[in-house]
Amino acid sequence: MAVPFFTGVREYQRKKGLFDKAMEEVLLRGDYILGRDVSALEEEVEAYLDVPYAVGLASGSDALLLGLHALGVGPGDEVITSPFTFFASVSAITRLGAVPVFADIDPETFNLDPVRAAEKISPKTKAILPVHLFTQTAEMGPLLSLAEQNGLALLEDAAEAFGMSYRSRKAGTLGDIGIFSFYPTKTLGAYGDAGMAVTHSEELAQRLRSLRRHGESRRYFHSEVGYNSRLDTLQAAVLRVKLQTIDEDIQARAAIASSYNTGLNNIQEIRLPVIKPECDPVYYVYSLITSYRDDLKSYLDEKEIGNAIYYPLPLHLQECFSFLGYSEGDFPVAEQTARSILALPIFPDMTGEETEAVIEAIRTFFNTLG
Ligand SMILES: Cc1ncc(COP(=O)(O)O)c(C=O)c1O
């Protein structure tokens, strides 16, 4: 049985009436840019996350860029972050002329290791940028203390973390600014690009609102050079429909993760996700670790069972960042993780038969290893 890694089409078909109506209302109102649904979504996300300010932006990548810009990160500043993340966490730093300073990750959670991060503080450090990968937040307690003790800004890359919590507080609301991606595969996913930044600071929220409109203070008057980075109204309308059932969708992901945990539990050659006690997880991605990764991947590809490698090459080894002067061996945990990690399909509309087919295929692969 072929199993897609992800499809958004089933959800659309299931709730076609709601999605069509939401999009049609935008088209009939004609408020395409920063329309009613954008401010309504911002308010609904503020309520869901329990945070006073949410600012809709064009993508998670832009949210990182505008977030760092709003925090005053600029040329020569150092920003401590993880080498094991999606490209945009780091390109946002270099695009502002700042310098990414990597610290290795925790081998169990794949998130920035606070002890390693502390070792990287220098007089040039301006901010810490932890990334909440796959299922759970980084260890925010120690990271927030580190930022506070050293007078640093903290931006949470919560692009993957919608709905996750750390000590009962929602991901994205713990630092100075938290950013989200609503890329279609995400737990809260649009039908195109979309993103958001959230903050407790009215001043930062105002700056973000200005930055997304070319730095305008009022129409055609610019207090600084900003960006064109508005959350599209049609996407906001789609996201509002999806936000209504987000907790059920998170629950559906947890049920699939639980089936994987049970079905794959006794295979010696793989390590299943490990969740820290402070974290309430959301299974945006279900990744396992195995030294047979490449062979398992080929086997699943052959059986048309969706899978993905997040991420095959850590950021310190990317060609475009060679000017930073890092080399192989600098971050052994990130490098080893990149060689052995594999993500399985997980999305709310996945069927029980599909989940079983994934488990069966993996069990067969390891049984035939001999
Ligand atoms: C950790 C992380 N940061 C940033 C992004 C960028 O978000 P977007 O694709 O919406 O630009 C993503 C998702 O793609 C991500 O997973």
Walk me through this protein's architecture.
The chain has 370 residues and is of the alpha/beta class. Helices cover 39% and strands 15% of the residues. It has helices at residues 9-14, 16-29, 36-49, 60-70, 88-95, 114-118, 140-149, 202-211, 233-243, 246-264, 293-302, 332-340, 352-367; strands at 53-57, 78-81, 99-102, 125-129, 153-157, 165-166, 169-170, 177-181, 195-199, 216-218, 221-222, 270-271, 279-280, 286-290, 341-344. The chain has a seven-stranded mixed sheet with strand order 1-9-8-5-4-2-3, sandwiched between helices. The protein has a three-stranded antiparallel sheet with strand order 7-6-13, with no helix packed on it. The longest helix is centred in the last third of the chain and has 19 residues, at 246-264. The protein is globular, with a radius of gyration of 21 Å. The protein binds pyridoxal-5'-phosphate (PLP). Pyridoxal-5'-phosphate is lined by residues 59-61, 85-86, 88-89, 131, 157, 159-160, 181, 183, 193, 195.
Identify the notable features of this structure and list them briefly.
370 residues, alpha/beta, Aspartate Aminotransferase, domain 2, Aspartate Aminotransferase, domain 1, three-stranded antiparallel sheet, 13 helices, 15 strands, binds pyridoxal-5'-phosphate
Short précis:
The strands form 4 sheets. A 7-stranded mixed beta sheet has the order 1-9-8-5-4-2-3, sandwiched between helices. A 3-stranded antiparallel beta sheet has the order 7-6-13, with no helix packed on it.
* 3D shape: globular
In CATH, what is the class of the largest domain?
Alpha Beta
Task: Count up the domains.
Answer: 2
CATH superfamily of the largest domain: Type I PLP-dependent aspartate aminotransferase-like (Major domain)
Quaternary structure state of the chains depicted: single chain
Number of helices: 13
Poorly predicted ranges (pLDDT <50, ≥5 residues)?
Answer: none
Strand residue content:
5-15%
